Amino acid sequence: MEHYASVEERKNSVSHIMEEFIDACDEYLFCLVFSVQGIEEKGKELKKMRFSKGQRLWIASDLETDQKMHARMDIKNLVKRCAKNGHFTYELTKSLLCVIYAMWDENFRHRIAAAYGCEPEEVRCPLMGDLRKIRHCTIHHKSVVPENGIHFEYLDWKLTPGPLNITYEMFRDFNDAVRGQGMKINAEILSPEIKRVKPLMSKKEINSFNEFYKETENKINDNIWPGMHNFVLKNEGKPGIQELKDALGIK
């Protein structure tokens, strides 16, 4: 006999998935914190050195056996990039945020959709939508904020036109949002019968319908839109209406 998940089972499943997502984001924050600490300390150490203009520092290995030279940088430039919320930190924050978005979009969003019984594209999360904009700017616009800025739905970040700079503190605030009130997920948990007849709705009915189902609880608990009965009566005989009535138990 086929088993359909109850409302409580759905909620528990999503809660477990979200705990796993939070744990993964926490790991990336630890990665950033330890990396930034090491970068800043190394920068301070190099700053104390006496070096001539244009002098380079090399990264090498096997110095005593088979010396290999892997990379070099101008020391003055290196010290500058190691500064607190300097270039190296910005590169790390942007990279890790892109990794987190990919993790959400390719893995966790799909698992949440499966738990809710909907399609991945029907799972919405304002915070992850904001993160998508950061990823898009990083990957497709060479980390340059456009003249009209980037407008967020949840984050209160004010990014001015020019280089996209995400500070360590901003990354930490993002993780706080993941652990706190930021992950307000909306899922389009509507039956195929309802989706089939939505095109028959008037603009007024669509607005009322969407407003009712903005409340995730109404979707999860399969609550029926208050205007559904009148909508069905008005469209009696049209394609999909009888199937909708049967599904909802409307006489």
Walk me through what this model shows.
- It is a single chain.
- By secondary structure, the protein is mainly α.
- It folds into 2 domains: 7-186, no CATH class; 190-248, no CATH class.
- The chain contains 10 helices and 6 strands; from the N terminus they run αββααβαββαβααααα.
- The protein has helices spanning 7-47, 75-81, 87-116, 126-140, 168-179, 192-197, 203-213, 216-220, 228-234, 241-248, and strands spanning 56-61, 68-74, 123-124, 144-145, 162-163, 186-187.
- The strands form 3 sheets. A two-stranded antiparallel sheet has the order 1-2.
- A hairpin with a 6-residue loop joins strand 1 and strand 2 (68-74).
- Helix 1 (7-47) packs antiparallel against helix 3 (87-116).
- The longest helix is centred in the first third of the chain and has 41 residues, at 7-47.
- The chain is elongated.
- The two termini are 28 Å apart.
- The model has no long low-confidence stretch (mean pLDDT 90).
